[in-house]
Amino acid sequence: MTNKKDPLGFKTATRIEVIKADDENEKMSIDEIEERTDQLVEAQHKINEAIELIQSAVHGTDEERRADAYIIAQLKIWASDDGKSSSYTDCDTLIERIENPEDDDE
Question: Would you say the pTM of this structure is higher than 0.70?
Answer without folding.
Answer: no
